[in-house]
Amino acid sequence: MTMFALFGSTVAMIGIVSVRYLIVSGAFAAATRARHPGLYAGLDRQIRREIMWSLASATIYGVPAGVIAWGWQNRGWTLIYTDIGAWPLWYWPLSIFLYLFAHDSWFYWTHRWMHQPRLFRIAHAVHHASRPPTAWAAMAFHPVEALTGAVVIPLLVFAIPIHVTALVVVLSVMTVMGVTNHMGWEVFPRFIWAGPMGKWIITASHHQRHHSDYRGNYGLYFRFWDRLCGTDRGLGSFAHAGPGQPASSGGAAAGPRDAGSGGDHRYRANHHA
Q: Does the first or last residue of the chain, that is N or C, have fewer Cβ atoms within 10 Å of its Cβ?
């Protein structure tokens, strides 16, 4: 019975992660087609590949999540709590920040590691094969890379106490930022990415530079590690820029620089570094 329940929890979590990906990426892809018609024109084959890799990644993400969810409900595993009074109210937002910062730190260093030439060719090239990335590319990872991302939150719930609603916020931020950072346009208002806040948080303008240059800008939510380690390359720009978008300044992008990456002329022409 225990094994059946554990299997059921795992299958359910795989389904939840998969459906969440399809709904969120699908919604932002539809918004892209409405806001920037033609931006994804000619990318149907790439999008199918992104969806295939993403659903494979959803399976990898769902397995540890399902095991942990079962253990939390049936064995009291983890430091997830449901009584909002168990910790001071000020800890609720703090716990969200701690999770996001810890996740961002893990992502920065594993992402930077993935850009070592051998690992890039083995695994991370799958993600960078999306040129340009679309809203469907957020989870388009090789299984090796997906595994490095799938263990983070399951490990954190054993280390840092968090209310279940705060955990929902963390997972929501993780999903939305993962998708919007790959959309090919800036969904957030200018005062966020171009103002003082933009010096410390990451949006599509920052992550686009990573996908065009193939180095630097390794963070996920915050620019802290990039700035500290000298890998912050600043904001990218979009040739299709409209009101409230980072505009191209002319000239060609630097293009891919990692071994084994040939680049894409359409991408380089439309995304200036």
A: N
Fill in the amino acid letter for 248: S
- Is residue 186 within 8 Å of residue 203, measured between CB atoms? yes
- Residue 102 has a pLDDT of 98
Alpha helices in 83-218 (DSSP H): 91-114, 117-119, 125-128, 143-150, 152-156, 164-180, 190-193, 204-213
Give the list of residues 6+ apart from residue 142 with CB closer than 8 angstroms, or none.
53, 122, 123, 124, 125, 126, 127
Pair 238, 208: CB distance under 8 Å: yes
The dihedrals phi and psi of 81, each to the nearest 5 degrees, come to -125, 155
* pLDDT, the chain, mean: 89
Structure tokens at 54: 């993403």
CA distances to 166, 182, 187 from 173, in Å: 11, 14, 14
Q: How many whole angstroms separate alpha carbon 107 and alpha carbon 103?
A: 6
Rounded alpha-carbon distances, angstroms, from residue 134 to 49, 148, 178 = 11, 22, 11
Q: Is the pLDDT at 257 greater than 60, yes or no?
A: no
Cis? peptide before 88, omega within 30° of 0: no
Q: How many Cα neighbours within 13 Å face the side chain of 265?
A: 0
pLDDT by residue (tens digit) across 156-207?
A: 999 999 999 999 999 999 999 999 999 999 999 999 999 999 999 999 999 9
Find tokens 């910790």 and name the residue: 87
pLDDT value, residue 214? 85
Question: Cα-flanking dihedrals φ and ψ of residue 163, to 5°?
Answer: -75, 150
Q: Does the predicted TM-score (pTM) go above 0.85? A: yes
